[in-house]
């Protein structure tokens, strides 16, 4: 298989996980998966992120907010910088899988700006930030499948990828999702974890260097 064909099939894995391909496209991707363990491993990671997206109610979607004009430039600059850094083959494959998974999460955190269903309990929690530039509020929604964090705010560095970890009493930390900073533009992120609310004790937001920029204990 030519590299371009393989890349095109890998780029279809997210749509495959969300059942958004045509029957012919799905058949082609499935045939490739049968013989490609690397893509099967990526699909396994994406499948965990795709499940929350299936619960999105289109009738509750709010208009997509305008993103900062320099957001795309910041993202592409970081991508170019990463490409120039030499890495061993196994690390390049791991980063590719992470990027594919992040694309699905970003679609959830940025593209799908959800209204709050009236029948779900909303628990407001206090947050602490490491810089006054961050203006953030957070709410929790307990679900039968885990805990949802609704993060609203501004001041996150444009183009910077942030990771959210939810902490449990005995389970340690679990990834709840990632998002891209939008600067002064307000954003609403809906982040999900399989950790039950009864076991959740707090969450942290890490910047691209792994430093805590925001935390909450509840």
UniProtKB/TrEMBL annotation:
Signal peptide: none annotated. Gene3D superfamilies: Anti-sigma factor, zinc-finger domain. One of its GO terms (molecular function) is sigma factor antagonist activity. Residues 8-40 form the Putative zinc-finger domain. Keywords: Membrane, Transcription, Transcription regulation, Transmembrane, Transmembrane helix. Its main location: membrane. It is found in: Membrane. The keyword Zinc does not apply. Pfam families: zf-HC2. It comes from the Bacteria. InterPro entries: Anti-sigma-K/W_factor, Anti_sigma_zinc_sf, Znf_put. GO terms for biological process: regulation of translation. It is a single-pass membrane protein. GO terms for cellular component: membrane. The chain crosses the membrane at residues 94-114. This is Putative zinc-finger domain-containing protein.
